TrEMBL record:
Entry keywords, A to Z: DNA-binding, Transcription, Transcription regulation
Organism: Streptomyces viridosporus T7A
Name of protein: TetR/AcrR family transcriptional regulator
PANTHER family, per database record: HTH-TYPE TRANSCRIPTIONAL REGULATOR YJDC, TRANSCRIPTIONAL REGULATORY PROTEIN
Domain called HTH tetR-type: residue spans: 6-66
Gene3D superfamilies per UniProt: Homeodomain-like, Tetracycline Repressor, domain 2
DNA-binding region: 29-48
Amino acid sequence: MARTKEFDPDAALQSALELFWRRGYEATSMSDLVEHLGIGRASLYATFGSKHELYLKAMDRYTGTRDPLLLAELSQPGPALPAVRAVVRRFAAEAASSEGRLNGCFVTNTAAELAPHDPAAARRVESSWGHLETLLHSALLRARAQGELPGDRDPRALARMLLVLLQGVRVVGKASDDPARVRDAAEQALALLD
């Protein structure tokens, strides 16, 4: 007779995500996960597979909770440019916050730590960035169609510039103790939308 799980896999995955987010992949050992999650090593492997598989599942959870929020923000009816501005300013504020400095962005952290040598992680990073770029591009196309964005502006190029800015904001916000650096960069980028 099979034993029932003595833990909530969903809660365990969330807890693993938080530990990986705070410490990174390499700095988190299986022993750390066993201790942090309060789950036996065998149960952890049986439920989530390897440490790498657990990390990828944690990354999927992270993007699965954040991507719908961005979709809602950037696809709301009415003027599109205020939504784009709000997203850029929110990213900058989060990056400059004490939590942003502590954890950064899980996707950006993964891009820096794993993507150069881990194809599965790199695919997830690229998917997340592609999704954000598409959302920004769609919003900027709407803004141009509604007369909010000058007709000579390239929505695709602007979306790519904002994507790169937002990822850079996350990196600089994590490493810098000067929140004005992040805010000023975001405002200068937003001035290009005028």
